[in-house]
Amino acid sequence: MTTFSDFETLWENASDMEKRAIKGFVTGYSFGRGPGLGESRAHTLPEDFKVTDGMREWAARVVPKLNISVHTPKFRDHWAANAEGKYGKKCDWTAAWRSWMRKAGNL
Question: For a pLDDT cut of 90, what percent of the chain falls above it?
């Protein structure tokens, strides 16, 4: 059985991106546009963006021949270099990463 201290440990070790996702899930808050939300909640790539175990599992299933260790730094560098303007901001960086990996896997 999961205890409260287990959740505290998870929270302490979570990245900023993961904490935003957890807060959104718990509160029902949407990071994108929606009724009454005003401006988009899109943001630039977090400095602490990391590939999680879940992302690795997804890649193993969807793009098994792709070396994500090679393509993830390219993804980070691209979005760090193109952070200005509306195209450099995303509501869901994990989804952006999956899209990048799918495209890289089709090359």
Answer: 50
Rounded CA-CA distance 27/20 in Å is 11
Give the predicted TM-score (pTM) of the model: 0.62
d(CA 107, CA 63) in angstroms, rounded, equals 11
Q: What is the spatial distance between Cα 75 and Cα 72, in angstroms, rounded to a whole number?
A: 5
Is the C-alpha dihedral spanning 66, 89, 32, 28 positive or negative? positive
Quote the tokens at residue 8. Answer: 């505290």
DSSP state of 86: G
Provide long-range contacts, Cβ within 8 A and 24+ apart, for 57-60: 58/98, 59/101
Distance CA(72)–CA(56), nearest Å, equals 11
pLDDT tens readout for residues 2-50:
665 666 777 677 777 777 666 665 555 545 444 444 445 889 999 999 9
